[in-house]
Write a structure and sequence with these properties.
Structural class: mainly beta
Radius of gyration: 25 Å
Number of helices: 3
Number of strands: 17
Order of helices and strands: EEHHHEEEEEEEEEEEEEEE
Strand content: over 45%
Helix content: under 10%
Oligomer: single chain
C-alpha cells in the first residue's frame, strides 16, 4: 500500500484570434497539459518482486512509498497556430501544432538500487499540420476531409539494465506519420445515406522502432430513415443500418507499447466487416 500523494501544477491556457478580410480568422493558442503518474503497473511488478526489484529496494532502506513519492506529474506545453476560412458553402481550417512533453515516466536504471523502475526521465516532441475541410455544395450534400501530418520524436536516450540505449530522435510508438479521415452524406426527404473512410499510416509498435506496423484503410457505410412524427406513439422515430469495414480489411487497430525495452507490445486486432441495425425513438 501507499499513502495519499498530492500533486500541484499550474495549468494556464491562453488564446487570441482576429478576423482578417472578413472571411478569415487567424488564431494562436497555448495550453499546458498534464498526466498523473500511473502507479499500478510498477506496483504490480513490485508486489511480484519481478527481477528482485522489491528485494533491491528494501535492501537500500526504501519502500514502494519512496519510489512513488519521487514521481512528478508529466506535463506538456501545447502550441497551436492556424487560419480558418468561412465561405458560403464551406469552412476550411489549416492548423499547425507543436507539443513538448516533459517528465514522461520511463523505466530506467538506478545505480544506487541496482534495478530498473519508472522514473521521470522521458522527453518528447510532437509537431505537424492538420487540415479540416467541411463542404456543402448543395443543401442535400455534406462532405468533409481531414488529413493530418504528424512528426514525433523522443529527445533523450534511456539507460536500461545499466546499458545506454540510443533512443533519441526515434518516433513515438503508436503515432502514425500520416492520417486521413473523409466522408460525406446525402439527404433526401426522410433518407440519409453516408460514408466514412479512414486511412492510418504506418507506425511503430515499440520504443526502439524495430516493429513497424503497416498502414490500413477502412470504409464504413450508413443509412438512416426518419419516420413521420407520432408514429407508433413515438417522436423522432428513426431506423438506422450500418456496414462497418465493408472491404473486411485486416488491420491492427490499437497498440499498447511497453516502456520497458524487454517487454512485449500488445496489439489489438481491428473489427472485421460488421452489420449493425437499430431503431431509436423518443416518447
Amino acid at each position: 500500500s501507499v499513502d495519499a500523494i498530492h500533486y500541484k501544477e499550474f495549468l494556464p491556457t491562453l488564446g487570441i484570434s482576429a478576423m482578417v478580410l472578413d472571411d478569415y480568422e487567424l488564431y494562436a493558442k497555448y495550453g499546458k497539459g498534464y498526466q498523473r503518474p500511473y502507479k499500478y503497473s510498477f506496483a504490480a511488478q513490485y508486489a511480484a518482486n519481478k527481477d528482485s526489484i522489491r528485494t533491491k529496494v528494501l535492501a537500500q532502506g526504501k519502500t514502494l512509498q519512496d519510489i512513488v513519492k519521487g514521481w512528478n506529474i508529466e506535463t506538456s506545453d501545447l502550441f497551436d497556430l492556424g487560419v480558418r476560412g468561412y465561405f458560403d458553402n464551406a469552412e476550411i481550417t489549416l492548423n499547425g501544432f507543436y507539443n513538448i512533453h516533459h517528465d514522461m515516466l520511463h523505466s530506467t536504471y538506478d545505480a544506487t538500487i541496482g534495478a530498473d523502475y519508472l522514473q521521470n526521465v522521458g522527453e518528447a516532441k510532437v509537431y505537424g499540420v492538420e487540415l479540416q475541410t467541411t463542404l456543402m455544395p448543395t443543401e442535400k450534400i455534406w462532405l468533409f476531409c481531414n488529413p493530418a501530418l504528424t512528426y514525433s520524436k523522443l529527445t533523450r536516450d534511456i539507460n536500461y539494465g545499466n546499458t545506454n540505449y540510443s533512443l533519441k530522435n526515434n518516433e513515438i510508438p503508436e503515432t502514425p506519420r500520416l492520417s486521413v479521415k473523409l466522408g460525406g452524406s446525402y439527404k433526401l426527404q426522410y433518407h440519409l445515406l453516408g460514408f466514412k473512410a479512414k486511412y492510418i499510416g504506418s507506425r511503430y509498435g515499440d520504443i526502439e522502432n524495430k516493429e513497424k506496423i503497416d498502414a490500413y484503410t477502412t470504409v464504413d457505410l450508413n443509412y438512416n430513415y426518419s419516420f413521420d412524427n407520432n408514429l407508433f406513439f413515438t417522436k423522432n422515430l428513426k431506423f438506422n443500418a450500418k456496414v462497418q469495414n465493408i472491404f473486411n480489411t485486416k488491420y491492427i487497430a490499437g497498440i499498447e507499447s511497453a516502456d520497458l525495452l524487454d517487454d512485449t507490445t500488445s496489439y489489438h486486432v481491428g473489427s472485421p466487416r460488421s452489420f449493425i441495425v437499430g431503431v431509436v425513438g423518443s416518447f
